[in-house]
Amino acid sequence: MGYISLLPSEGIFPLIWNAIFSVIIAMVYIKGTITLMEKLVDSGKLSSDLSRKVIHIAAGSFIWIWLFLDTSDGWSWLLNISVPLLFFLTFLIKGTKGNPDDPDVKTMTRTGDPRELLKGPLYFTVVMMIAGTVLYGSYAGMLMMAIVGWGDGIAPYIGKRWGKREYKTLGRQKTIEGSIGVLLFSIIGSLIFLVILGVFGGLPGDANAILEDPGVDLLIIVIVIVVISIVAMIIEALSPSDVDNLLIPASTLIALWIIDLLLSSSFLVFFPKFGL
C-alpha cells in the first residue's frame, strides 16, 4: 500500500487517517508556508519574487503526504487533492475579485495584479490535482511535480539573480544560468522525491511500494530523470509567459510516453490506483 499509518486499515479508520493528512496537515503545511512568506514580504526581509518561488516549490512538494495515505479502502486517498482544490477555487474568486492588497495577490503574483492568480497559480493547482488523482502513485505524477515544482520553480529566480548570459526565445528574455537552473533543480527535485517515495515508501516491486514498478533498473530511472529534465529545460525556454505551468507537465508526460515506447517500460501510468 505504501503508506505509514498508526490506525487500523479497516472500517472508517482509513478515511479518518487520510482526512487528517490530506486536509488538516496538508493545509497547515501549505497555508503555513504562505503565511510565513507573507510576513517576510511585509517585513521587507524577503522579496516577493523569492516568496513566490518558495511557495511554488513547497506546493509542488505536496506529494510527500503520499507516504502517509492509506489506500486500503480504495477511495479516501483522493482526499489528497482537497487543499489544491480549495486553492483552485480561492484563486478563481480572488483573481476575479481584483483586490491588490490581498495577501495571496502580494505573495503569488509578479506585478500585484490579482488577475495573475488566474494564470500560473491557477494552472499549478490543476496540475497538483491531476497528480493527486489519475497519476497518484505513479512515476509520472512524481516526476511531473518534481520538475514543475523544483525545476520551473527556482529557475526564474536564478536567472534574475545570477543570470548574465541572455538569449531570446519567442520574444521572451532568458538566461543561460536560469535554463541550467531548470535542468539541475529538475534533476535534484526528482531524485529527492525518488528517495522519499521510493526508499522510504517501499522500493518499486515491493508489496508496500507507493510507486509503480517501471520495469527497469535504478540506473535507467536516473537516466530517464536526466532526459526529461533536459526536455523541461527546453520547454521552459520556449514556453510563452504564464503557461509554463501547463506546458512543462504536459511535455514531461509526452516524454515519458515516448520513453515507455522505446524501453517497453511503464513510467507513464494513468489511473494506477484505479486498476486501469
Briefly say what this structure is.
The protein is mainly α. 60% of the residues lie in helices and 3% in strands.
Could you characterize the architecture of this molecule?
The chain has 276 residues and is an all-alpha fold. The protein has two domains: 133 residues, no CATH class; 140 residues, no CATH class. It is 60% helix and 3% strand. Strands 1-2 form a two-stranded antiparallel sheet. It is globular and about 50 Å long.
How would you summarize the topology of this molecule?
Layout: H1 13-42, H2 48-60, H3 82-97, H4 103-108, H5 120-131, H6 139-162, E1 166-169, E2 172-175, H7 176-199, H8 218-238, H9 244-263
Antiparallel strand pairs: 1-2
Helix pairs in contact: 1-2, 2-6, 3-5, 5-6, 5-9, 6-7, 6-8, 6-9, 7-8, 8-9
Strand order of the largest sheet: 1-2
Biggest beta sheet summary: 2 strands, antiparallel
Name the structural class: mainly alpha
What proportion of the residues is helical, as a percent range? 55-70%
Q: Compute the number of structural domains.
A: 2
- Please report the distance between the alpha carbons of the first and last residues: 17 Å
Kindly list the characteristics that best describe this protein.
3% strand; 2 domains; 276 residues; two-stranded antiparallel sheet; single chain
